[in-house]
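Inputs:
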Amino acid sequence: MKLVVLWRVLVVVAAIGLLEVLCLAGAIDRITMPPPHEIARDLWRMLVSGRMNGAIRKTLTNAAIAFASAAIAGVAFAALLHGHRQTRATLDPLFATYYAVPVFAFYPLLIAVFGLGDLPQVLIGFMLGVVAVIVNTLNGLDRVPRVLAKTAAVNRLGRFRTASSITLPFAAPHILTGVKLAVAYSLIGVVGSEFIMSRGGIGYEISFAYNNFDNATMYPLIVLILALSIAVNALLSRWEQRLRLRRGQR
Amino acid sequence: MAAPHLTLRGVRKVFGGLGRTGPVDALGPVDLEIARGEFFAVVGPSGCGKSTLLEVIAGLATTSEGTIAFEGKPIAGNVPDGVGVVFQEDASLPWLDVASNIAFGLRRSPIPASERDARVRRALEMMGLVDFAASYPAQLSGGMRQRVCIARTLVTEPRLILLDEPFGALDQQTRLLMGDELLRLWRATGATVFLITHALDEAAMLADRIGVMSSRPGRFLDVVTTGWPRERDSRIVEQQSFGAVTARLWTTLREESMKALGARAAPA
């Protein structure tokens, strides 16, 4: 286990090291990409100066709203849907093909309807994330053993309490898998829409910097987005692992 | 004589009737009276409707015909107050530790927290789980998990305990020991026990009376009174009369079991 982690770190460090060498040797010219140490320095300066705070706050707030609503609506919808076999049978193929639809294609439409504010971006993030939560929650609910449903009846739990105290907790590791995807998807949705058309946010700033050859802003922002996404994902993965370990699963 | 604790009158259960297959006669008619504090076991060939019988008594399923009364009140598709059920399958909740699993049985009762904790502690002691209170089910053996489920039922202080092949998934030695524990609990709680089992020796060792069921639709062919003293344990198997009881059960069941096997082997 430890050796694996060591190798993983080594691979990342080696890749960054290689980029550094290629940049310093001039194999990658400065207009394409500054060396990694400069990116790190620029990121630090950017964060200290606070000039991107507004953009970072806007993006993270929108992504958080998109994520939270996708998670809550996804779990609630799946819990409701699980009891209705007919509706489920109708919707299942739609869920299966959902991610073949380029959700971003709806962005212009959403702007036309709701205007160029935060809402269309939040909606794109929500739309990308919600189905992952629904599908994974349903998958977890499908695995609840029949004996636990009988246990709920013996304990005289109603529909709502059965869901809140037996079936959803049982499905928690699966729900968490969906939630993890929703974090990534909502961030992708929000940043991606900011790229396309926006009045602010990290995606907008990256795009703006790109159009102005401002590598000292663009690369640090890209690294920031990467770091944020990886950090949140790692935290959730650790939680998921703890839940699974407790149940004797690896 | 006092009124029976549990009464079944002409109980039948018919399944389905949808699609191409006609309705399936699963159970009955069954008539039965069980006295308060009695240990009653049911044996029968597989698929004879034993579990269906338990489910209708538990109120987990409705009867198609007939009535069931617990303490004089009819049971109609709802689990009545004072009834606890232990299933064959592992019904422990994997996300809760042992103590919380046991306390789960009390989450809907209006008793104060101090009383709840006391009951959980007593159940932990009774089932030998004190050292495992903070463990999770995944860390326990199958027998221990079944004890957790029994303890979860015990905390509700049921007056009627229904057990559906609770030791079916355990090895023989563990089953015998769990049988001893069940007898101890039965004496300590004074509850009426209704046990479904496929093991004739288990029924003969544990019960005051044993109902022998026919193949589907399950009816009682014979009700055997064992005549054991209330103070007893698994060493009862050493007695000669134990062999006689088991033999009588098997004589009745042999033909029925063959019928059940034959019915399944024949084309539908």
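The interface with chain B takes residues 145-148, 150-151, 153-157, 161, 165-166, 169-170, 172, 243, 246-249 of chain A (CB under 8 Å). Flag for discussion at group meeting.
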